[in-house]
């Protein structure tokens, strides 16, 4: 019996496991998913919940999300030995595998920015909205906010969904206008880079929108620490940013089971990400190992849209190996980011390794697609291993 182990039940892991279960004979192949969590959250809701555009209940039990015939092991992965081909668990026996799919995502670490965790836990002004609890709390804070500086910052680390800070910033500015307090609010976002969005022509379109709406972008800002008592963010170059309401993006890293408990990330530049071939998603040293999504080092944008494309590539390549064939499926770097600019308007940034794909046009249809259609597509199609959209 061939055993495939999928580490992680986020977007990439759940999709890949369900595709493999559908494609492979259950009499000859076992598929196991392991994760320390029991709930799968629709993470794109985290920047919509604060404004009331999606209701808070946006999760599903993992064991109900997986197809019948996929075994779910609720345990924490503490290490992977790709030479002996087993996954080490915190409280259960080791899981031996013939093929391994790593989809562990990013690890959010608010303690990596001094003062951030204290500011979140001990004040009513700081809400790192990549955490579900903070997104809920930010909803209440926005209702009480009556003016001052609304600040969004980003860490020096790579982040999942790089468009989310921009979307939160634009939706907040629109929210303040609709509440009639825009003249009393300064809206500021920072990033430790030259631009707020990395891909053209969407970048120029966003600059145009931000200039029209007086949203301030501060480039090349590295957050050093947060002083919750003073309501100040100190930067690495000695500057400081005042805030009255602060929505920081938490620093993000590879999971410790990968970075400390395995050699799978040893070849990456910073030791944080599983090293793979950017097209086949196969590990560059261990032929039985594949990885996708936020946990690997391929140069694509870390979005669920990228993971859904990679999931089909990984599943097809694993299926080919199970059948004794070679690896042929390739991922082209596709990623998509619906950029919600204000209530009822959005533009969609689509691009791959080579070029941009969609036009930078704001439409109501894009908003409807992202807010009203995609959640159902996500749960009922993508997570089940189907891909009805191009």
CATH superfamily of the largest domain: FAD/NAD(P)-binding domain
Number of domains: 2
Report the top-level CATH class of the largest domain: Alpha Beta
Our count of helices gives 9
At CATH level 3, the topology of the largest domain is: FAD/NAD(P)-binding domain
Gross CATH architecture of the largest domain: 3-Layer(bba) Sandwich
Order of helices and strands: EHEEEHEEEEEEHHEHEHEEEEEEHEHEEH
Mean pLDDT: 96
Poorly predicted tracts of residues? none
Tell me the distance between the termini. Answer: 35 Å
**Secondary structural class:** alpha/beta
Side by side, the strands of the main sheet go: 5-2-1-9-19
Largest sheet, in brief, is: 5 strands, parallel
Shape: globular
Number of strands: 21
Helix amount, in percent?
Answer: 25-40%
Strand content: 15-25%
GO biological process, one term: sulfide oxidation, using sulfide:quinone oxidoreductase
GO molecular function, one term: sulfide:quinone oxidoreductase activity
Protein name: Pyridine nucleotide-disulfide oxidoreductase
Secondary structure topology:
Layout: E1 2-7, H1 11-23, E2 29-35, E3 39-41, E4 59-61, H2 62-65, E5 70-74, E6 77-81, E7 86-89, E8 95-96, E9 99-102, E10 106-108, H3 116-122, H4 132-144, E11 148-153, H5 164-179, E12 185-191, H6 202-213, E13 216-219, E14 223-227, E15 232-235, E16 240-242, E17 245-248, E18 252-254, H7 256-259, E19 289-291, H8 304-322, E20 335-342, E21 345-351, H9 364-380
Parallel strand pairs: 1-2, 1-9, 2-5, 9-19, 11-12, 11-17, 12-13
Antiparallel strand pairs: 3-4, 6-7, 7-8, 10-18, 14-15, 15-16, 20-21
Helix pairs in contact: 1-8
């Amino acid at each position: 019996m061939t055993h495939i182990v999928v580490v992680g039940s986020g977007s990439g892991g759940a999709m890949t496991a369900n595709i493999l279960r559908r494609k492979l004979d259950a009499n000859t192949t076992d598929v196991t998913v392991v994760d320390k969590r029991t709930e799968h959250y629709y993470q794109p809701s985290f920047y919509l919940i604060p404004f009331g555009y999606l209701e808070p209940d946006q999760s599903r039990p993992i064991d109900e999300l997986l197809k019948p015939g996929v075994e779910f092991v609720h345990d924490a992965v503490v290490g992977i030995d790709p030479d002996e081909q087993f996954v080490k668990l915190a409280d259960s026996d080791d899981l031996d595998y013939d093929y391994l799919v790593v989809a562990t995502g990013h690890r959010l670490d608010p303690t990596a920015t001094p003062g951030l965790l204290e500011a979140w836990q001990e004040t009513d002004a700081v809400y790192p909205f990549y955490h579900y609890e903070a997104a809920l709390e930010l909803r209440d804070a926005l209702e009480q906010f009556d003016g001052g500086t609304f600040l969004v910052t980003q860490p020096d680390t790579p982040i999942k969904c790089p468009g989310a800070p921009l979307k939160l910033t634009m939706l907040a500015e629109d929210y303040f206008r609709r509440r009639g307090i825009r003249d009393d609010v300064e809206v500021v976002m920072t990033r430790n880079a030259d631009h707020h969005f990395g891909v053209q022509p969407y970048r120029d379109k966003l600059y145009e929108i931000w200039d029209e709406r007086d949203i301030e972008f501060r480039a090349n800002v590295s957050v050093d620490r947060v002083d919750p008592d003073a309501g100040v963010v100190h930067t690495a170059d000695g500057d400081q940013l005042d805030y009255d309401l602060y929505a920081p993006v938490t620093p993000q890293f590879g999971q410790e089971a990968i970075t400390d408990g395995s050699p799978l990330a040893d070849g990456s530049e910073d030791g944080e990400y599983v090293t793979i071939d950017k097209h086949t998603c196969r590990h560059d040293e261990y032929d039985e190992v594949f990885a996708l999504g936020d946990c690997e080092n391929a140069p694509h944008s870390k979005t669920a849209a990228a993971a859904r494309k990679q999931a089909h590539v990984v599943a097809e390549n694993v299926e080919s190996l199970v059948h004794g064939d070679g690896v042929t499926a390739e991922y082209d770097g596709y990623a998509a980011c619906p950029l919600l600019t204000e209530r009822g308007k959005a533009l969609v940034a689509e691009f791959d390794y080579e070029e941009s794909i969609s036009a930078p046009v704001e439409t109501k249809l894009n908003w409807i697609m992202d807010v009203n259609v995609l959640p159902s597509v996500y749960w009922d199609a993508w997570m089940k291993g189907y891909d009805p959209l191009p």
